[in-house]
Every structure is written in C-alpha cells, then in structure tokens.
Amino acid sequence: MILTDWKSGTRGCYCSGISRLKHPCTVSSTSRTPNITYADAITICNYNAFKKSAVIESGWESLVPHLLPFLTTTSFPQNEVDVTSPDYENLTFPEWDSEELSTRWGHRIEDMLLECRWKQSFTCGPQDFEMTWTDFGPCFTFNGGDDRQPGGGESPYVANDSTSEEGLWLRLNLEQHEYIATPFDTAGFRILIHSRYDWATFVNPGIIQAAPGFTTIVPLTKRIINAKKYPYVTNCTDDGLKYFATYTPNTCLLECMADAVLEECGCYMAWMSGGDQEVCDFATAAACGFNALVGVNCTCNMPCTEEQYMTRVSHTATPAQYAIPKLSAKYNMTAEELRNNIVDLYVYIEDMRVTVIEHKEAYDFAKLTSDIGGELGLLLGASVLTVFEFLDYLAVYHLLGLTLLKNFCQRITGKRK
C-alpha cells in the first residue's frame, strides 16, 4: 500500500514485465566510516493521549471516546464513521484546534521527563523536545528540526564515536494515574528513531515499545540504500513533493493522505502537512476528515537515497531494589508507583560504520564498450592472423612448386645425357 513492490537479493534484482530482460541490475553492499556524524531524531509518544484530570476538569469527558479515532489512528481507517448516529448527534465539539487540545489535555513533557542526559555529561531538559502531532496523537521529538526545511537548523546533538558514552539517556514518568480508556489497553511509550529529514509516522515498522519498570537499551547502526530510477524495478524518486523538502516514504504517504482530506474537506488533519491550507477543526475532522481516508490508496516509490536506522532492543529491570528508597524520596513516589511509571530509555550508536547498499546496472555502458572492444580486438586479431597464414601458405606452395620443378628439370637433363 505504501511502497512500490521491488525485489532484491545477492544475485541481483530485475525489472518486471517486458523490461525484466532488458534492464537487469545487481545489488552490492559495502561498509564505510562516514565523514559525517550521527544526528538522528527520537520521537516519544505516551500510549495515553489525554490526561484524565484535564479532561474531567474541562467537562468534555464524554467527548474523548469520539475524538480518539480521529486523533490517534495509526493506519488508514477501514470503515466510515456515521456521524449522524445517536452517539454523535448530541455532541458539541470545542472551538479550539488540535494544538490547543494537546496543551490543555495532553501529557506535558515537563511532567513526563524526570531526567535527561546527553553523552553522560550534558544535562538536557524539556526545552530540547518539541511537541509533534503524529498519527498516534501528540508526541515529543528530541533533536528534531529538518535543516532543509525553512526555519530548520543544524542539530546541536551529534554523536562522534560509537562508545556507549555517546548517547541519550532518559528517565520518563508514564503518569499512569492520568490514564483514561484507550483503544490499546496498554501502558508504556512508543519510540521511533528516524532521520531528522523524515516525518514521524507510526505506520513505520521500526517502532520500539518501552514498558514501565524496565530500562530499554537501543544500540543503533545505520545503513544507506542507493536505488535506481526507472526503468529499473526500484523506480526510485527523489523529488516531487509539495509540502516537504525531502522525499521519503513517510512524507510521500502523508502528502497523499493530506491531498485526499483536502480534496474532500478543504482542510487537513493535525498530524499531516498541507502547506498553507487550514488544519481541520474537531467538527470537520469528525464529520469529514476521518471518512475521507477510507479506501485511499497511496503508492509511494522508494527514495533514491534512503537512510535507515537499524536497532537492537534489550531490557533490564528498573529501579533496582536497593535504589527504591532513594528514588521514592527523590520523585515523591511509592515503590509501586515507581514500578508502574518509571521508564528508562538509553539510545546510543553501536557502530560508526555505515552499510551502503547500492543498486547498479548489471550491464552498464562501460561494460558494453569493453565487450565491443574485446570483440573487435578478437575479430581484428583473427583477420591479421589469417593474412599471415595465407602468405605462409603461398610461400610454402611456391617453394614446394619450385623444388618440384627443379627436381623435374634435373631428371630430364640427366636422361638426355
């Protein structure tokens, strides 16, 4: 649904249909140490989108079950919502937009972030996280900001080495006492590690789950895939987006979905990007936006150059038994609250080497000219050899003829004498 189908392997990749025999390609993989540093972005989402106390205080608690499908969908909706049903007809949606909703109802990074350290020495804080609307609701991104977009700046957080000291350590508070009923019945954080040039969407398969009572350790490696444009089967794309400076499968997908909602509703959902168009208010999102995505088919080719972060995840229990009294006093929590709410996350670079996967023509112009030269050389070499063989034949033929003629003459002369 998202990516154009393509096949690859150690023996090669081939175009489909008639082009299969005309445009074969090969796949090569190499490792190199980059001249650049790692500056990945980390997006963190609480499984609970809205805080119970804020929702109850606002008086809109009856509205939340109806808002969740529109604000925390992680895929294309399969069925339309009938907003004329009795469940919706008596609802009055608030006037404020989705960003205000996050400010009023959502978890605040100032409350969830207990501690933050970068490279074990620099103390980071809430000011280093940016609230981001995703298809999973309001989330927070560390080290975000695409410097290719207007207003985006270079990353201040770069890793220069692959030691475990070169990483980000977070201690987070789930605030489970603020949980309300969600479609997931799950407590924890969703973590997405992605390029700063990409958009965080949770249709991405590389999602990490961080549970309370555990330290989630995530070593990173990086690979770059260089694909080929048409007529090769990868049929990659590196431009053509209206709302994003960088083409990725996620940005292409979001633009496709935004166009579908814009065409149907005249606005786009909060977790999309629609340029200068308006974000849908709650009433429009409920009556139009969600249903506009039903049945939408987005075909997005792979980018010509794609950065991927490969992860390995491991867990250890936290906090240790001996640390509970100290942490209870520090955070004003009981031992049970610590176990139910504390999530430690440690992300670092495991290897500075980058794996580069490159799709190349199996038979390119250089090989063609080389083969033509070889064949011409063979043919020309054979022609010259034939000339010399012919001359050799003539020489031998004439020498043999002269010898025979001489012998014949000698025999005739001898008989006459």
UniProtKB/TrEMBL annotation:
Q: Which Gene3D superfamilies match?
A: Acid-sensing ion channels like domains, YojJ-like
> Can you name a GO cellular component term?
plasma membrane
Repeat found in the keyword field: no
Q: Which domain of life is it from?
A: Eukaryota
What's in the keyword line of the UniProt record? Ion channel, Ion transport, Membrane, Sodium, Sodium channel, Sodium transport, Transmembrane, Transmembrane helix, Transport
| UniProt membrane topology term | Multi-pass membrane protein
Task: Extract the GO molecular function terms from the UniProt entry.
Answer: ligand-gated sodium channel activity
Places the protein is found:
Membrane
Homology family: Belongs to the amiloride-sensitive sodium channel (TC 1.A.6) family.
Q: Which PANTHER family match?
A: AMILORIDE-SENSITIVE SODIUM CHANNEL-RELATED
Q: What is this protein called?
A: Acid-sensing ion channel 4-like isoform X3
